[in-house]
Amino acid sequence: MDSEKICAVISGGDYAPMEGIDECSFIIACDRGYVHARRAGVHPDIILGDFDSYSGALPEGTEILRLPVEKDDTDTMSAVRHALDMGCRRIRIYCALGGRLDHLYANIQTGAFAAAHGARAEIIGEGAHIYVLPGGAIELPYRPGWSLSVFAVTDEVRSVSITGAKYPLSGAVITNTFPIGTSNEWLPGEAVTVRAEAGIYAVMLCRMPQ
What we know:
Layout: E1 6-10, E2 26-30, H1 33-40, E3 46-49, E4 63-66, H2 75-85, E5 90-94, H3 101-116, E6 120-125, E7 128-133, E8 136-140, E9 146-152, E10 156-163, E11 169-175, E12 192-196, E13 201-207
Parallel strand pairs: 1-2, 1-5, 2-3, 3-4, 5-6
Antiparallel strand pairs: 6-7, 7-13, 8-12, 9-13, 10-11, 10-12
Helix pairs in contact: 2-3
């Protein structure tokens, strides 16, 4: 797979509209994620899982990867590993927010695993969009009514800069034991750029309550 192409992973958390999935060139559905895929009219290339949360019929002609129930990886982690093994370095994870808190945290850690292997991961839900990045820069177009927060995922992230935001930052070190980057916001009409020299960091965009 071309590393610039986007692989979609449809997890089994709460259903949410799959923003941008039409831009993805390869789709993996995880267990109950197949139900979400059908609801969205999406046809996965692979369906994988231990099938503890889905026991219905599976489509003919689609590759099925059955995983053991007792395993170290979650189904979503297995799907991300598969995407990385195919050479994908852009991964979007859908339907992975909400539901069980432990799975939510595991999905963020799965995004960090992808970043540790050189990929950019996104976790996309309704009213939330999380980027997990292996350093480098990201530009975020103006989103009125949304907040943005920047967090260290590794112990520290060095040379962090934020421009185009109400609370800018330049050359800072942020750590994963202090949430200093919580709840920033765009300057009106501006794009925000977040940049880091080293370390894995997360940028969380959240729709603000009305």
